[in-house]
Amino acid sequence: MLWLLLTGLGGTAASLAVPLVVQRVVDGPVARGDAYGLLLLGALALLFGVVEALLIFIRRWTHAAAAVGLEAAIRDDLYAHLQRLPVSFHDRWQSGQLLSRATSDLGVIRRFLSFGLIYLVVNTITYVTVIAMLLRLYWPLGLVVAASAVPLFVFARQFARGYLWASRALQEQQGDVATLVEETAVGLRTIRSYGRSRFMAGRFADEIGELRDIAIDKAGLLSRASAKFDLVPNLTLAVVLVVGSIAVAGGELTIGRLVAFASLQLLLIWPVESLGWIIANGQESMTAADRVFEVMDTRPAVTDTPRARTVEPGPGRVVFDDVHFSYPGTTQQVLRGVDLEVRPGETMAIVGVTGSGKTSLVSLVPRLYDATAGRITLDGTDLRDIRLDCLRGLVGVAFEEPVLFSMSVRENITLGAPGATDAQIADALAVAQAGYVYELPWGLDTRIGEQGLSLSGGQRQRLALARAVLARPHVLVLDDPLSALDVHTEALVDDALARVLKGTTALLVVHRPSTIALADRVALLADGRIAAVGTHSELLATVPTYRAVLAAETTPAHGS
Ligand SMILES: Nc1ncnc2c1ncn2[C@@H]1O[C@H](COP(=O)(O)OP(=O)(O)OP(=O)(O)O)[C@@H](O)[C@H]1O
Predict the structure, then answer these.
(1) Over the stretch 374-424, which tens digit does the pLDDT of each residue have?
(2) Which of 142, 144, 411, 474 has a 20 to 30 A CA-CA distance from 365?
(3) Annotation: CATH topology of 318-558
(4) Which residues cross the membrane (predicted)?
């Protein structure tokens, strides 16, 4: 950046020197008919020209590395920050808006840092220097040129205000379009199967149309402002030429001085003309920076407390102690005083009607969210007192919606256990009944498509289950991980899973009675509290609500 600035200033100084040489050429060698003097001054002008060209070359050469380097560094910070932000942040934000901030907004900022900002500094210094030189050459005309800054200032202010609004609108709209593209790509099957392709295309056309309209309005603002900016120096030049010629005729000014004056003034045309573009670029990057900082300034809500420490794996007792929970930014109390003890090595099934808060309850264990009141302990230590990376190493999770990344099968499975051997992977795959991966074209090294879309729902769930099991977690959280499996495969997985669950403390959100059989005990969640805890048969015999919940969950699952 320093190189950019120094070469920018050096180049401008060289170009400003040329008119002063011209003045001396006209008033000296040309007036006297001195050929040798002309050659000398001509060579000097050439030297300045060469120096300017060299500096421009260095500036262009260094600019890419500086600007692209800055952009990459900011993008890196933004991505790292997004990883630290809690799940609740991502619940609230459309991914397209994040995408446009990480891509197009950073591009706008880069353009400003590499061009706009440099030209703003260089052009301002050029402007002030030229005005000072003009005042020195012939002050009455110098004052005329200086006064032309007043209308420029007024136009610039008007333009800046209008443009700020338009830039923000354009960037928001770009985010909305990115969101729509992302949603369409992810939901393509649903859109196709409902025959809504044309409807979605129409919606996209509307959004794109709005983007186009804002962009055209914005371009209109810039072109109107540029025309005004253009007019001012050209009108001033006309005044200078007329008044200057009269002054030369009256003997107050030499021709050489007038030529130098006019040449210097021509050097002002570019800084003034570029003003519109620089302001536009500045306003765009200001709104882009605002948008990036909306993300950067969001403090991660789930973080390590100063007391947080690394703990050694203990027996694995998980205790919920009067746990209350509402999602950030909402008033609805999802959990209202949950008391539950999961004993070491025990598998506890969580059962409740749809929307009763089962997923919310188990999300608190790996601290995807923090309880709003009460506490959860692991072997007697409050979860908030365990370092996050340690806690997440101890707790393995598989959710109903399995997310697979655009990587090989092996990389997907070993996400939580990067050093796992092939034998360990084979064991995990066997538990999850996911042996089908060996039949894929490149076996474990097969790259699976975006979100594993080339696999079936059941296949994806089994991979996600293998991933959770492979990490040999101390506490396993399984949120209905078998919902997409057919009855036969589920039975096979259940058998294998039963062996894994034997030695592990587990929380299992389940709907189907067949999976409940895996659990040692069952907790019934109702009205944000644990209404009953016991073995499946105890609850069946003594708790009518339990029977009702299971009946309600079983009916659609078995399609009868
Ligand atoms: N990210 C979120 N932000 C705000 N509210 C949420 C969020 N996720 C869930 N909720 C609300 O919290 C309540 C409990 O949802 P949760 O997903 O925990 O229920 P569940 O028992 O797991 O349901 P299901 O059996 O259908 O999976 C619901 O009323 C839901 O609307």
Answers:
(1) 999 999 899 999 998 899 888 888 877 778 888 888 998 898 888 888 899
(2) 411
(3) Rossmann fold (3.40.50)
(4) 36-58, 112-135, 141-160, 231-249
List all residues 6 or more positions away from 306 whose beta carbon is below 8 Å from its beta carbon: none
Task: Judge if ipTM > 0.85.
Answer: yes
Helical H segments across 85-116, by residue range: 87-92, 95-100, 106-111
Q: Compute, in angstroms, the gap from residue 359 CA to the centroid of ligand 1.
A: 7
Which residue's CA is the closest to the ligand 1 atom numbered 26?
354
The residue extents of the domains of the chain are: 2-296, 318-558
The Å distance, Cα 205 to ligand 1 centre, comes to 34
Q: How far apart are CA 479 and CA 353, in angstroms?
A: 14
Q: Is 166 exposed, middle or buried (0-12, 13-18, 19+ CB in 10 A)?
A: buried
Residues 327, 333: Cα–Cα separation, whole Å:
8
Residues 181-238: pLDDT tens digits? 988 888 888 888 888 889 999 999 999 999 999 999 999 998 998 888 888 888 998 9
Helix H or strand E segment including 556 = helix 544-558
* CATH number of the structural domain 2-296: 1.20.1560.10
Are the CB atoms for 203 and 176 separated by under 8 Å? Answer: no
Structure tokens, 470: 């492979």
* Whether the CB of 327 sits within 6 Å of ligand 1: yes
Q: Do residues 257 and 138 make contact, with C-beta atoms less than 8 angstroms apart?
A: yes
Positions in the chain short of pLDDT 70: 449-453, 484, 553-560
Nearest-CA residue for ligand 1 atom 5 is 327
Residues 6+ apart with CB under 8 A from 258: 138, 244, 245, 247, 248
Taking CA atoms, 167 is separated from 96, 160, 210, 285, in Å, by 17, 10, 13, 9
Distance separating alpha carbons of residues 196 and 198, to the nearest angstrom = 5
Q: Looking at 358-454, which runs of residues are DSSP E strands?
A: 373-378, 381-382, 395-398
Task: Give yes or no for residue 330 CB within 6 A of ligand 1.
Answer: yes
Residue 300 is encoded by which pair of tokens? 């991660």
pTM of the model: 0.71
Residue nearest to atom 10 of ligand 1 (CA): 327
Measure 259 CA to ligand 1 centroid, in angstroms.
78
Q: Six-digit token pair at 231?
A: 């007019």
Q: Shortest CA distance to 519 belongs to which of 359, 342, 385, 313? A: 342
User: Cβ-count burial of 464 within 10 angstroms (0-12 exposed, 13-18 middle, 19+ buried)?
Assistant: buried
